[in-house]
Amino acid sequence: MALAADKKASDIVLLDVRGQTTMTDYFVICSGASDRQLNAIADDLDADRDALMTANRKDLEAGRQKGLDAALLDRLELNASRIDAMIEGLRQIAGLPDPVGEIFDMNYRPSGIQVGRMRVPLGVVGIITAVRQYSIIERDGVPKPAIRLLA
Question: What is this structure's pTM?
Answer without folding.
Answer: 0.60
